[in-house]
């Protein structure tokens, strides 16, 4: 590692909020420090029957982040990069203008599309090509929905850019596709590591819109003269990183071993492990696991789990009804509720985007012959216990697919601030849980920039730096007998859900 100090800027965009974080590397001390210089909400907008991302508002917030970086006294920023959620995208016309606001992955325009595509191509064939978990909002199904319902938009499209690609284009004027996010589209071949031309042709999609992906850690331009003039800042170099935020979060897992299990915990929970190659077995298909590209030639074998979206949506609904309890207060209400009374399968289709999440949870319990939670605390307790038990379910399947036994689980992301959920996860899995760091995706973004700039040698060194720089809290499992009985009940309830 080069002995020097360096400051870089990470934009980390989640499905509910975004942040601009400046990282400073002091290689002599072997430590990283970070400062959040700007945070903002990321609120989708309902327009008629469709849900969209407010992409121009996000661009405005990125500009504010660059300004706040300057106002906080960081005049030596060497580079910046953007990571975000996966699957969503924008389309550019031949003149470079954006063709409409990107759809939100929870929009209903893809309803029924996945089954049509699977019927036409074959589930086994599609999985063998892409290795991706079947989720109705994957980019492939969004594009087919556009072809069916808005074909003129695709006819006018010249370039397909995923959310970080699109925002980078707005900042630099350069169009590039980044590898880790491209692999989440279900149009990227997991074996040939190229866009799957045969699949794209079978679906009748315009193949020319897909740009050859570049690797994480590649310079892809600099702030454009127009942006520099508008913000009165120098032309900062812009890099790709693991632009799918989960790819960046996995970079930041402070594991001491090469073989580890991780849980990136936020609006979504993503649980799995890092492998050297995709796992495309019949069992992986049957269990609907996903293989996504990681940085530096790694593969992420994982499962998407609905996550803290369930609590976030309950809170949003209760706020509409005039209740003002914070997340911390809701957790306290849940803590005093009698355990193991009711369970849900967090991944049941009915929880994807309901109008009233608390009523939906009650309906699931009613439909599966359980006691129905009544109070807010009971509903939150139901969610948290069910998430922890689902984590065990997926962790054990990850072990079977990878052929590795994990003595514990690394949790990164904002969800680690929910200490009760971390303890429940340790209890449910009956293993140690190592929680930290909170800003996993942002840290992964930062260290890939430093590797690209030559300040850090490799991924192993980056993880060691993160472990030395940020606290990791260890949770020890408790009440093994109670949680084992709860797991049996949970598995019975989950077997009745709509999840395949």
From TrEMBL:
NCBIfam families: rhamnulo_kin. Its EC number is 2.7.1.5. GO terms for molecular function: ATP binding; glycerol kinase activity; rhamnulokinase activity. Gene3D superfamilies: 3.30.420.40. Residues 262-452 form the Carbohydrate kinase FGGY C-terminal domain. Belongs to the FGGY kinase family. The keyword Transferase applies. This is Rhamnulokinase. It is an enzyme of class 2 (transferase). One of its GO terms (cellular component) is cytosol. The keyword Transferase applies. Residues 8-251 form the Carbohydrate kinase FGGY N-terminal domain. It comes from the Bacteria. CDD domains: ASKHA_NBD_FGGY_RhaB-like. InterPro entries: ATPase_NBD (IPR043129), Carb_kinase_FGGY (IPR000577), FGGY_C (IPR018485), FGGY_N (IPR018484), Rhamnulokinase (IPR013449). GO terms for biological process: glycerol metabolic process; rhamnose catabolic process. Keywords: ATP-binding, Disulfide bond, Kinase, Nucleotide-binding, Rhamnose metabolism, Transferase.
